[in-house]
Amino acid sequence: MTGYLSKNEKAAAGGSDLSGTVNIKPQILTKMKRMSEQHKKQNNNNSYLDRMPPEILCHLLSYLELEDLVAIGKTCKFFNQTVQNTNTLWKKHCLAIAHVCQMDIKNDRRDGYPWKVTLQRNYLKSKVKKDWLDGEYSNIRSSTDLPKRSMHQMHAEDWGEILKVELER
Question: What is the pTM of this model?
Answer without folding.
Answer: 0.61
